Amino acid sequence: MKISSIARIGAIGAVAALALTGCAANEAPATEGSSSDSTSTLEGTLRATGASSQGAAQEAWVAGFQTANTGVTVNYEPTGSGTGRENFLAGASDFIGSDRAFKLDEFTEGGFGMCSSDAIVEVPLYISPVAVAFNLEGIDSLNLDAATIAGIFAGTITNWNDAAIAEQNEGVELPDLVISPVHRSDDSGTTETFTTYLAATAADVWTHEPDGEWPINGGEAAQGTSGVVQAITAGNGAIGYADASQTAELGQVHVGVDGEYVAYSADAAAALVEASPLEEGRGAGDLVFAIDPAAAPAGSYPIALVSYLIACEQYEDANTAALVKSYFEYMASEEGQQAAADNAGSAPISAGLRDKVLAAIDTIKVD
Fold first, then answer.
1. Pick from 341, 85, 304, 290: nearest CA to 188
2. In 3D, which of 187, 194, 75, 78 has the Cα closest to residue 133?
């Protein structure tokens, strides 16, 4: 069972949102090696903010972890990735979720507010396709290549019966209807994932640099993943991008990759990530992928969100460190990854990646 309760965290720019909490021990799966009668000695509360894309996964993770650790409360507020990173820098969140990792030039001399050292742990525990979703009466799916998707969001393709769309969708009766693109209003790792895809695969059409903030004035803007989905749902002719776990009721774009059109799936998104190297120049606990959508292998889905869980290697409070480390280990476990997959449709990390993730988490100092 999943319960949402209102939680307010004294955080920079945070808005009131549903905090995700678990409930009684018989209402969610226990963590690995535990029973419904928890013997955990962990106690305390964790405050977390960040990526709204992780919302459904965090529901499952919090419920499972609190079932096995009844003395612990985890409050995760889906404020959006940008606010989460601001909160972590300011010391207002014990850990955060973010749809992108901190960039190397964001490691400031002042460090991270909750941390007693400059080193942080960033581990990719939520991998999910970013869907390009639309609302067109009577149409469930469309084939679109990168240049066409870029043209729609750049504003150079403005009608649903445009020849560029029609040529890729023979036999589909496209309406003479204005296209209404929807983008995120907040600083979002999902936006950065999507604009990275556009810049990498259709640079002659999409002339903007990848960014977490939407670079074009105009169009409809919506707050968070849920806001984008609501805006698309409410408007016939609308199209937008959002974590695929929340777009099941909308029309879906099959994205052109290497001469074929690929529907989003957890496996297809994982294939892109598994083929990507880790970024160089980072610490032992800082596992960040260098993903190039233009190099997507055949059959993979080229718009994959790799959402990170971010913590300190060393906390000022030893109990906070122990709680964060234990929660991260649960999220990374086979059981935790499956719980997220069942609830959010994400792609469980591979066994090989899990070994690297657990080694990174083990750098969190608890004494």
1. 85
2. 194
Non-local (6+) Cβ contacts of 267 within 8 A are 347
Outline where the chain has alpha helix (H). 55-68, 81-90, 146-154, 163-166, 189-201, 224-234, 266-274, 318-332, 334-344, 351-361
| Spatial contact of 7 and 19, defined as CB atoms under 8 Å apart | yes
pTM of the model: 0.77
Please give the distance of CA 83 from its chain centroid, rounded to a whole number.
14
CA–CA distance, 300 with 171 (Å, rounded to integer): 26
Confidence of residue 114 (pLDDT cuts 50, 70, 90): confident
Rounded Cα gap, residues 39 and 363, in angstroms? 25
Q: Would you call 130 helix, strand, or coil by DSSP?
A: strand
**Dihedral (Cα; 56, 62, 63, 65), 10-degree rounding:** 140
Q: What is the pLDDT of residues 85-105, one digit of tens each?
A: 999 999 999 999 999 999 988
Distance in angstroms (rounded) separating the CA atoms of residues 159 and 157: 6
Instruction: Name the residue type at position 103.
Output: K
For residue 220, count other CB atoms closer than 10 A to its CB.
17
Tell me the C-alpha distance between 128 and 303, whole Å.
9
What local confidence, expressed as pLDDT, does residue 109 receive?
Answer: 62
CA dihedral sign, ordered 52, 349, 287, 29: positive
Per residue in 7-55, pLDDT tens? Answer: 333 333 333 333 344 333 334 444 443 434 457 899 999 999 999 999 9
Burial class (CB in 10 A: 0-12, 13-18, 19+), 342: middle
Q: What count of other Cβ atoms lies within 10 Å of the Cβ of residue 104?
A: 12
- Cβ proximity of 315 and 367 under 8 Å: no
Distance, in Å, from the CA atom of 238 to the CA atom of 232, rounded to the nearest integer, reads 5
- Kindly write down the DSSP assignment for every residue of 257-294, as one continuous string: ETTEEE---HHHHHHHHHTSPBPSS--TTB--B---GG
